[in-house]
């Protein structure tokens, strides 16, 4: 049975996954988009920063200092200047250097490849012990690079989950990692698609301000839609596009 407005959070999570799998292009567990080290440091740079500014900061950092050894040895003020397009460069610069220092000291090289042989719990604990590395960053690295069964929850995924009713309205981003993961199969491909599809949905339709509810395939069981427009009519459901239209905008990587 399809989910309804009265369905449980778990039922809504399952229906969300099925609906967005039909709406957005499906993903596969191909070669990771970035190396583990780049994924880690880029995600640190991305906090409250646009993707374009994150990429610019990363490129300037490597252009200025050459490699991870150069970034670690750089004067911290110069590193902060190189990553100045991020939200908090003066905070992130020493944080990045401490992360690099600890990886080199503990592993003897600037590499995270060893995490592939660790259990998910061991790898998560090790990453979360790093300065500035939280559940989202650790989960992104472990899911994207090592196909561990974890679920990254960023602001977009969190917003969609709250509005639909997959989690409660007062559930924090940190708590949402656990609650949503408990409602999904512990399968990396499923979790990758759930994360990316809800990430895209938050960016392209379920905006923070003025969400485009007319295009949303979740309106038939979304709490936000019911609260603002009433139960979706047959006409509103029939008018919902079946698939994402690239004419609306290009989906990010």
From TrEMBL:
Single GO term (MF): endonuclease activity
One of the GO biological process terms: base-excision repair
Keyword ATP-binding: no
Domain HhH-GPD residue range list: 45-204
Gene3D superfamilies, per the entry: Helix-hairpin-Helix base-excision DNA repair enzymes (C-terminal), Hypothetical protein, domain 2
Keyword Nuclease belongs to the record: yes
Keywords annotated in UniProt: Endonuclease, Hydrolase, Nuclease
Top-level taxon in the UniProt lineage: Bacteria
InterPro entries: DNA_glycosylase, HhH-GPD_domain, HhH_base_excis_C
Name of the protein in its database record: Endonuclease III
Organism: Hymenobacter rigui
